[in-house]
Amino acid sequence: MISRDTIAGLYDLYSEELFRYVRRFADSHEAAEDLLHDLFIKFIRYVEKKPVTDTNTRALLYSIGRSVCLDAVKKNKLSRRDIQDPERISLIPDPHTSGEERDPLLEFFNSIIDTLPEPEQSIMLMRKNGLTFDEISAALNISVRTAKRKAGKALEIIREKYRSSSFYSGNDMKSGDKSLY
Question: What SS3 state is found at 174?
């Protein structure tokens, strides 16, 4: 379990930049404050279940931030017009939530992502939650080119594990397919 001091330290370190990030999705300062609050609540719940390393904390916070914004849209806390760039929002199911029956294939891919090394794991989580490579590179302090190269490496690992799984039928994901990219 994560300590209160650690949470307070992370809040002090990241709250300002995360506020600016979620503010892009909110129509008011108050709505952005609510989103930031929800982001840290969701983060605390997540780290109670899974260990988080220093290398992926910032990326995880951004990923959860995107998820919180999407949740707010889905629950009509924000309207579609409150979002500055709606075509960039991905409606991929959120791996941090619980409850509903999950698709076994989705669970399989989530388990592969959980085993990826850093920063590949963080990059794939952020891509899965709809972040652009520009946003990922800013969040991880790496170049866009490095983010794309690491994503490509992660996709190769995912393809390899998928092809050796019971889910693969032989006609799926042709070599060189970059559709997940």
Answer: coil
pLDDT at 149: 94
Pick the closest to residue 109 from 169, 180, 41 (CA basis).
180
Give the Cβ contact number of residue 95 at 10 Å: 20
Q: How confident is the model at residue 140 (pLDDT cuts 50, 70, 90)?
A: confident
> Is a pLDDT exceeding 60 seen at residue 148?
yes
- Residue 62 burial class via C-beta count within 10 angstroms: exposed 0-12, middle 13-18, buried 19 and up: buried
For the whole model, what pTM was predicted? 0.50
pLDDT at 95: 43
Domains for the chain: give ranges and CATH numbers. 1-94 (no CATH), 101-181 (1.10.10.10)
Kindly report the three-state secondary structure assignment for every residue of 110-146: HHHHHHCCCCHHHHHHHHHCCCCHHHHHHHHCCCHHH
The length of the chain is 181
Tokens read off for 169: 């039928």
Closest CA to 127 of 23, 166, 116, 98: 116
Q: Find how far residue 161's CA is from the centre of its chain.
A: 21
User: How distant, in Å, are the alpha carbons of 4, 18, 173 from that of 7?
Assistant: 5, 14, 41
